[in-house]
Amino acid sequence: MQTWTVAVANEKGGVGKTVTVINLGAALYLCNQKVLVVDMDPQANATKGLGVEVPENAPTVYDLLDPQTRFVARDAILPTAWDGLDVLPSHVDLSGAEIELADVEGRENRLKEVLTDLSGDYDYILLDTPPSLSLLTINVFSYARHVLIPCQTHPYAFAAMEELCDTIAAVKDAINPDISILGILPTFFDSRTRVSQRILNLMREDDRYRDLLFKTIVRANTAIIESADARRPVVFYRKSCYGAIDYNHAAEELMARVLSSQPVGPLAVGSAH
Ligand SMILES: Nc1ncnc2c1ncn2[C@@H]1O[C@H](COP(=O)(O)OP(=O)(O)O)[C@@H](O)[C@H]1O
Ligand SMILES: [Mg+2]
Which protein residue's CA is at the shortest distance from atom 13 of ligand 1? Predict the structure, then answer.
């Protein structure tokens, strides 16, 4: 099985990263894909949003990052209520990992070292990232093949995106030559406000972003907030709401984009013959 690794990132908070990870994971699952969500945000909202309670003392991604760890990735993976949609949970202590890893050689590759083992176990590994450019996000970028950028259709969203694109370019040069931006997913679109439409038009007209922009636009939808409260992805919580429809479309578009991208690494060599 070819495993595709997709980081969902944006240095801004509250742009829909976690909701995107949870719902793309669930929508891909509905398309018969085997999915792992890796929660790299110490707030653990992706873990909670998939309805997963981490048993006390169970290993989490925090334990895996410790160079002296006795755990492998499979020890920490937990099932969700949906068979074939799994979570590698986060822990609040993850916020200290940056300092703890400060003196570790190869600290930006720790996640990659522990997740490489999972290659072939899943069709998709989706990674949620914290809302700041920290060592955790760099670890995600050093491992992921693709980056999906949720971008609010709000003013100021542009500036943050430019910074993120620069960061990814720097990571590509220095750490992970295989990384590429899979696309930009507009979120929180509200057709009643002129500003949403204006920002979307700006993105469509910008040479840097035009080709990256997903056709799917995720609309602002209160059912998404309710589903978070119910700790279920909205695609399961209310199948016919805008949020569910939009994320199901986004998952189809993601699969099409991923499959038309070039495989890299050892599998690419194999598939060339
Ligand atoms: N399309 C949407 N419509 C309405 N609310 C949304 C939408 N996407 C996300 N939210 C809500 O906005 C808040 C921030 O979303 P979240 O995914 O946690 O952002 P991030 O992970 O980027 O910080 C959450 O309360 C979430 O439920
Ligand atoms: Mg989040």
Answer: 14
